[in-house]
Write a structure and sequence with these properties.
single chain; 281 residues; Beta-Lactamase; 2 domains; 13 helices; globular; Tscrpt_reg_LuxR_C; DNA binding; transcription
């Protein structure tokens, strides 16, 4: 007799029991019954909406909407190759996708925090989701590493969790969810977000493998100059002074670059430009 076909949604639901065991050591914090049912419904809807041929950007939008159910307006996802230490996209891997405040993204890369981010360091050593507060209070976390989390809080990312996503041949990605207040994530919240992150990661990987190599967008010489200096941490005013053009002209070029690279962030545009080989730092 032929076994019933299992959808991706039903497969991920079966993981819930095993994942919940990872958090059995945390003091229990129970959801009201009505909230528990509502979140289960939202999780099922998220699985059904993403269990198809949606592109990476659409998947990210669906995950962002799902995370809002748990008070997380900000999420970030990035892939790293085995020897890569910073959160920049590897060649042919999905680009970094995030909706963190632009000011924090610019500050993060300007200060080189991608090289000392304790969340990334911890993610490489962990198998399950973890709270940022665990990382902050860990004895092995240095003061410089704590500064990354302290500054993130000043930009509104006051608490969060991260989900390590390990793959074959040492491949590694990490998904983070952040809240604008100092409040620990409940156990059930962590379970839902970890399962959603895993499902998102698998769908993005499947889409990337099926879509093949994407051709690099064509940038004009001036656009290349603007995005190069952006990647080096320069503001629009500074770029204008270097290139001898107005701030408005710089912003015009950067807007065109972001459109061509399909992102609303100049920081992510710079990362994509490096990844595509359009510029070299």
């Amino acid at each position: 007799m032929e076994r019933p076909r299992m959808t991706a949604a039903s497969q991920v639901r079966m993981l819930a029991t095993g994942v919940s065991d990872q958090f059995s050591w945390v003091p229990s914090m129970h959801f009201p019954e009505a909230a528990r049912e509502a979140f289960a419904v939202e999780f099922g809807r998220f699985l059904d909406q993403t269990d198809g041929g949606a592109q990476s950007e659409r998947l990210f939008d669906l995950l962002s909407a799902f995370a809002l159910n748990f008070g997380c307006p900000w999420i970030a996802y990035g892939s790293l190759v085995p020897d890569q230490k910073t959160l920049e996209p590897a060649q042919r891997d999905p680009a970094v996708m995030q909706n963190y405040p632009d000011e924090w993204q610019e500050r993060y890369f300007e200060m080189g925090y991608d090289r000392i981010d304790p969340v990334i360091k911890t993610g490489r050593k962990r198998a399950g989701a973890f709270r940022w507060s665990e990382v902050y209070n860990d004895a092995s976390t240095t003061e410089n590493e704590r500064r990354v989390l302290d500054e993130a809080a000043t930009f509104g990312l006051r608490s969060g969790i991260s989900v390590p996503l390990h793959g074959p041949d040492g491949c590694f990605a990490i998904m983070s969810f952040a809240q604008p207040w100092d409040r620990e994530f409940q156990n059930r919240t962590i379970i839902y977000l970890q399962l959603a992150a895993l499902h998102f990661h698998l769908r993005v990987a499947k889409f990337a493998n099926s879509s093949g190599i994407v051709d690099a967008p064509k940038l004009s010489p001036r656009e290349k100059e603007c995005i190069l200096w952006t990647a080096r941490g320069k503001s629009s005013w500074e770029i204008g002074q270097i290139l001898g053009i107005s701030v408005n002209t710089v912003n015009f070029h950067i807007k065109n670059i972001m459109r061509k690279l399909d992102t609303g962030s100049r920081t992510v545009a710079a990362i994509k430009a490096v990844n595509f080989g359009i510029i070299e730092l």
